[in-house]
């Protein structure tokens, strides 16, 4: 089957549906497409494409197996898949200047949307300075009078990629052209600027946390409040229970101050509450307008970012001077271009505790099999990293790598081998793995995310049945830590990440950016346009060194 053609036809179909306002259906279908990818049907599309094209544009999807949505026009609510504001140019790799064209286009795509794109505004000297005895008001030209070199220049950049792959066949190679030439990909450096576009005394800032819980939400809220107050902002509020808090009657905004949030990082969860669903962009923006909010800080995952971008666009359409800045939150680590999202590290740490328990149970039982199911909506990052960190996993199963349970090359046969040779074993399975082996639940959550069928319970039953059938004793211990991996406070590494991302979000808003996200790219802190990070969920690359390291650690064979 020509999967690329099917993929393109599917995208066109989605775009047509979007024009007909069938948003919910499109949402479900898009999720189905990702599920289809995870079943392996679209698995090597990018790789094959990379080897078969010359003189065609195919850059931009190097972080994911999914290709970018190419919707031409869209009425109604924002699609899950949003086209970048700067379009991609068609590249001819036989043209000697293709690299220059690529880079010019890249710079346009990664340029940050600013409120000055639509308003003619004059900046003022920043009120943010950590220098003692400062005169933050600046001189008569608005230039800060102190000589503190603590500001980031608007032209500062960080490199997104630092590996030069000599060949497209190098492990994990992410290439722009068929020869895998070295191309610089710069992103904007995050941090405080010398000039700002808001009068802090007049600013009303709001914070909202959306989607599922994630360790570190309170750390980010706290740092946003601290930093806003350092600029001199007095009016800071929290929107309760995600986007819902903007329009649901009876939900009142919560006043925030350093005093109120000082200790919230000591507990997990969200001080403001979270929710899924209910994203009606126009109602949210009506509410922003009515509440006279100037800066909105949005903490959430892929869906939340799509919502934040829709809010940013709607504010522009209505000519509202509002900065919308997102902070990428998700234990799943499934947001494109960034090293990691906050909460992921803590989730992995908690997950490996479950694996350790499974190991102890399995090790101590006669023919013990420890089975652990871990969260991860469409990607196997938590399962892969928890397997790597525990070092006790014999089989790691993720949605990006298809597998079979039965047959000569199936997982069950390998478990037999493990019981024969080492006497026990530990299996770690990601919740979205092996969905092709199960009957689809067909259910979705309030945000339209597909609810997966339970691969953990299915495997537990299959393993028990298999060993009963072959007459070999097996003591199966199943652990599903579910919410335990995310309903906890951030660990040290996440707490630091949250601190930096939260502070930078405020610096970005004062610098006049909107429609951006505050993140970590290639170990440096950066701002990215939201449009560039929501084209598809990030997924584990089965050809990456990290997955290969996981396989080296588990020693598992291919299961198909
Ligand atoms: N395409 C979209 N446009 C506008 N809003 C959206 C879109 N997708 C999701 N949302 C809204 O964003 C919020 C959060 O979405 P979702 O439940 O998918 O969580 P998430 O941000 O992806 O985080 P998590 O990692 O916990 O899943 C919900 O209120 C949802 O309605
Ligand atoms: O909080 P809910 O709605 O049960 O959602 C669970 C999902 O949220 C996440 O924890 C974060 O996206 C996923 O790993 C999981 O599939
Ligand atoms: Mg999501």
TrEMBL record:
Annotated Mg(2+) binding sites: 302
Cofactor dependence: Mg(2+)
Binding locations of ATP: 212, 276-277, 301-304
Localization, UniProt: Cytoplasm
Pathway this chain belongs to: Carbohydrate degradation; glycolysis; D-glyceraldehyde 3-phosphate and glycerone phosphate from D-glucose: step 3/4
Main subcellular location of this protein, as a coarse class: cytoplasm
Top class in the EC scheme: transferase
UniProt catalytic activity: beta-D-fructose 6-phosphate + ATP = beta-D-fructose 1,6-bisphosphate + ADP + H(+)
The keyword Magnesium is assigned to this record: yes
Important for substrate specificity (site feature) positions: 303
Domain Phosphofructokinase span(s) in chain numbering: 205-507
Role played: Catalyzes the phosphorylation of D-fructose 6-phosphate to fructose 1,6-bisphosphate by ATP, the first committing step of glycolysis.
Subunit structure: Homotetramer.
Protein's name according to its UniProt entry: ATP-dependent 6-phosphofructokinase
Source organism of the structure: Oryza brachyantha
Name of the gene: PFK
């Amino acid at each position: 089957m020509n999967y690329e053609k099917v993929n393109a036809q599917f995208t066109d179909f989605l775009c047509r549906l979007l024009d007909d306002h069938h948003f919910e259906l499109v949402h479900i279908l898009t999720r189905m497409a990702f599920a289809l990818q995870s079943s392996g049907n679209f698995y090597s599309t990018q790789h094959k494409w990379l080897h078969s094209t010359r003189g065609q544009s195919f850059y931009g999807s190097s972080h994911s197996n999914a290709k970018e949505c190419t919707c031409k026009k869209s009425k109604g609510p924002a699609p899950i898949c949003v086209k970048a504001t700067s379009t991609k140019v068609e590249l001819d790799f036989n043209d000697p200047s293709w690299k220059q064209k690529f880079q010019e286009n890249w710079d346009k795509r990664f340029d940050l949307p600013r409120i000055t794109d639509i308003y003619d505004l004059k900046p003022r000297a920043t009120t943010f300075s950590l220098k003692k005895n400062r005169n933050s008001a600046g001189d008569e030209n608005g230039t800060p009078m102190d000589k503190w070199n603590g500001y980031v220049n608007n032209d500062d950049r960080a490199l997104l990629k630092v590996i030069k792959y000599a060949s497209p066949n190098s492990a994990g190679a992410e290439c722009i052209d068929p020869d895998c030439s070295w191309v610089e990909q710069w992103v904007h450096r995050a941090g405080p600027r010398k000039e700002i576009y808001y009068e802090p005394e007049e600013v009303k800032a709001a914070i909202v946390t959306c989607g599922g819980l994630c360790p570190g939400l309170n750390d980010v809220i706290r740092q946003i409040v601290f930093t806003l107050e350092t600029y001199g902002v007095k009016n800071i509020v929290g929107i309760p229970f995600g986007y819902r808090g903007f329009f649901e009657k009876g939900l009142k905004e919560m006043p925030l101050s350093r005093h109120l949030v000082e200790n919230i990082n000591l507990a997990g969860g969200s001080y403001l509450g979270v929710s899924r669903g209910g994203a009606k962009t126009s109602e949210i923006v009506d509410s922003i307008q009515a509440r006279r909010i100037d800066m909105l800080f949005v903490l959430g995952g892929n869906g939340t970012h799509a919502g934040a971008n829709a809010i940013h666009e709607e504010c522009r359409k209505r000519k509202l001077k509002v900065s919308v800045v997102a902070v990428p939150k998700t234990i799943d680590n499934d947001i494109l271009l960034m090293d990691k999202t906050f909460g992921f590290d803590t989730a992995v740490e908690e997950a490996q505790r479950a694996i350790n328990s499974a190991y102890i149970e399995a090790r101590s039982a006669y023919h013990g099999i420890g089975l652990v199911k871990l969260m991860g909506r469409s990607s196997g990052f938590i399962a892969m990293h928890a397997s790597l960190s525990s070092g006790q996993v014999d089989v790691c199963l993720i949605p990006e790598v298809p597998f079979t349970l039965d047959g000569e090359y199936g997982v069950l046969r390998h478990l037999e081998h493990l019981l024969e040779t080492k006497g026990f074993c530990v299996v770690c399975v990601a919740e979205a793995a092996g969905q092709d082996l199960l009957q689809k639940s067909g259910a979705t959550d309030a945000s339209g995310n597909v609810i997966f069928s339970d691969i953990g319970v299915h495997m537990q039953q299959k393993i028990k049945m298999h060993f009963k059938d072959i007459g070999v004793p097996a003591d199966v211990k199943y652990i599903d830590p579910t919410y335990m991996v995310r309903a906890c406070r951030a660990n040290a590494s996440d707490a630091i990440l949250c601190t930096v991302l939260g502070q930078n979000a405020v610096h970005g808003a004062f610098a006049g950016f909107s429609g951006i996200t505050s993140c970590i790219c290639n170990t440096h802190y950066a701002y990215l346009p939201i449009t560039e990070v929501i084209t598809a969920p990030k997924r584990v690359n089965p050809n990456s060194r990290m997955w290969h390291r996981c396989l080296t650690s588990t020693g598992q064979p291919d299961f198909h």
